[in-house]
């Protein structure tokens, strides 16, 4: 009975590993009831699998070793596959296109192989492996707890240092709208965005209607922007390196040096791109976050499609509402509020009337929700998202500007996209593909009147070089604007 309890508890610990980790690293966001509900579900699944295995294998020790193996494959197969793909991008370039179906098949094949091997291993060896698994899961939880304690201490020290030094510099609102393209591209797909751009200009924004980003995807574009330079060849192709560049970026470090407090809001992102970001504290958000690193990510999203879209809209609204309250919570000076909003990027959650997308047809077990290539229907869905997020941004900006009266130091507001809407497939034969559709991005800034003359010819690569040169009186040289692809300037084939 004792052996049963220990081995079963350890298999349950493997089952609950990722939910516990997410809860511990985001304890201020998620309620304990969220963790309790999800852990109960995984423990019930674990027990159900154990009952099913009894039909094939009578030895209880083998049950729990098989179950631990199942959960390890479930939680770690996708991160391992991503790591291999990042290290050998050319060899495994096919992986990105078919990753979910292939990953499910490989996971099942590996699982069956493990089960067959375990059935042939002697009982004495099984016990040794079980002890190793049980010790490992305990060590993993202890290491997580130690890492969290060290992180909390370092974060507390940083906050104290910032609060002890305070100068009067304007708040900065930096809003990144993922995949929001420029006016030229929207005209080509027969969408008129002029009303939104004119509204921004009435608010006092400088709008760069033909702006282009420097890279065609989010990680490269954000890493380049937040480090104020073009990426080196070895950086551009490695996702791990890009993530490090983003989380330890130069821009945020400079703001901290000048006594700014940096706040990052990325509720709607499926992955923690920036580190230490705030998360939507709902049960469904917790569930989708837990499954985002597993082979059945898209299958869970497909099964609960309506909940998934509702959760995504809630994430967007929560980000904007948090930004609206940021001045009261953090003060009217010396803050940068950085928000990354996953819109108009997929998921396409609004229909043409601005209501929740009502096409909840099951998409299939091996298919992602959204196609990689744009069809005519996809273009209409994309422009629906542009229209709806633009409405919300207009209201948001009006609210933010109204919070600062004549006696307050006016804020700086940066509003931009990170790449064009055709970034998922640089298919040179596609009739819509050109430099604007791949790299074109929304770019508008609200800055002091005396800066505007200098900003008329501002290029996207020089965004923060310009801000720092005027705000902190630095002397960063301006770079030549160009679009990059695989380490080379991007030239569209004719």
Explain what you see.
- With 494 residues, this protein is α/β, with parallel strands linked by helices.
- It folds into two domains: 146 residues, no CATH class; 319 residues, Alkaline Phosphatase, subunit A.
- It is 55% helix and 7% strand.
- The chain is built from 19 helices and eight strands.
- Strand 7 and strand 8 form a beta hairpin.
- Helix 1 packs across helix 3 and helix 8 runs parallel beside helix 17.
- The radius of gyration is 25 Å and the shape is elongated.
- The N and C termini lie far apart (73 Å).
- About 6% of the residues have low confidence.
Give a short synopsis of this structure.
55% of the residues lie in helices and 7% in strands. With 494 residues, it is α/β, with parallel strands linked by helices.
What topology emerges from the helices and strands here?
Blueprint: H1 2-15, H2 17-25, H3 32-53, H4 60-87, H5 94-120, H6 123-163, E1 172-177, H7 183-188, H8 194-203, E2 206-207, H9 218-227, H10 233-236, H11 239-247, H12 250-257, E3 261-265, H13 283-291, H14 297-303, H15 305-324, H16 326-330, E4 335-341, H17 376-402, E5 412-417, H18 435-439, E6 443-446, H19 463-471, E7 484-485, E8 488-489
Parallel strand pairs: 1-4, 1-5, 3-4
Antiparallel strand pairs: 2-6, 5-6, 7-8
Write out the strand line-up for the largest beta sheet, numbering strands in chain order: 2-6-5-1-4-3
Catalogue the unreliable spans. 90-94, 151-165, 364-374
How many distinct folded domains? Answer: 2
Shape: elongated
Order of helices and strands: HHHHHHEHHEHHHHEHHHHEHEHEHEE
- In CATH terms, what is the architecture of the largest domain? 3-Layer(aba) Sandwich
The CATH superfamily of the largest domain turns out to be Alkaline Phosphatase, subunit A
Task: Tell me the name of the CATH class of the largest domain.
Answer: Alpha Beta
The helix content, as a percent range, equals 40-55%
How far the N terminus sits from the C terminus, by CA atoms, comes to 73 Å
Computed structural class: alpha/beta
User: What is the C-alpha radius of gyration, as a whole number of Å?
Assistant: 25 Å
Q: Got a strand count?
A: 8
